[in-house]
Amino acid sequence: MIVDFLKTAANLKKISRQGWIDKLSIDDSESVADHTYSMAIMGMVLSDLKNYDTEKILKMVLLHDLAEARIGDYTPDQLSKENKKELENNAFNEIIEKLPENIKFNYSEIWKEYQDDISKESMLVHQIDRLEMTLQAKIYQKEGHSKDKLNSFFEYAKKDIVDPTLKELFTKIVDEN
C-alpha cells in the first residue's frame, strides 16, 4: 500500500546519521532525511550542469538510503560491506513490495543501478553522497567540533570524489574558513 511506503520514507526523519554520533558524540546530529534533502539539491544542480538524467539522479538520491528507514544507519566500522548490502537489499525490497508493479520495477532498477555503481548517474550520486558528507562536516567544524575528529570524514570523501567538478567543490568546501 502506498501509505505504508510513505510512512516508512517519513521515518528517515527520525534516523540519525550514525557516523556523526560515533565520531563527534553529537546528540542532535542530522537525520538521514536531512542528508538526503541536501543531496537532492546537489544532485539536481550537478545533474543539470552536466546534462545528465536529472529525474533519474533525483530518484536515485531519494532511494539511496531508503532502506535505513527499516535497518538504521550503519557505519563501515559496524558492518561489513557485504552484510550491509544484504540487509539493505532485503529492507528495500520489503519497503517497495506493496507499490504498484510498474513503480516497484522502476525503483528496483534504479536501486540496482545505484548499487552496481557503473553508470554515470550512479557514480555521480555516490560522489555526491561524499560531497554532502564533506559539507556537513564543515558545518559541524564551524559549529566548534574538532577538525581533528572531522579529518577522517574529509579524507574518506577526498579519495572517493574523482569527478573534476565535484573535486573542485570539495576543495572549496574544505578550504573555506
The total strand number stands at 0
**Multimeric status of the protein:** single chain
Overall helicity:
over 70%
Global structural class: mainly alpha
Largest sheet features: none
Mean pLDDT: 94
Rg from Cα:
16 Å
* Large-scale geometry: globular
Uncertain segments: none
> What is the chain-wise order of helices and strands?
HHHHHHHHHH
Q: Kindly estimate the percentage of residues that lie in beta strands according to DSSP.
A: under 5%
Can you put this structure into words, describing what you see?
This protein is 74% helix and 0% strand. The protein is mainly alpha-helical and 177 residues long.
Task: Furnish the topology, listing elements before pairings.
Layout lengths: L1 H9 L7 H7 L7 H19 L3 H11 L3 H4 L9 H16 L4 H16 L3 H23 L4 H14 L3 H12 L2
Helix pairs in contact: 3-4, 3-8, 4-7, 4-8, 6-7, 7-8, 8-9, 8-10
Features:
single chain, 177 residues, mainly alpha, globular
Offer a concise description of the structure.
The protein is mainly alpha-helical.
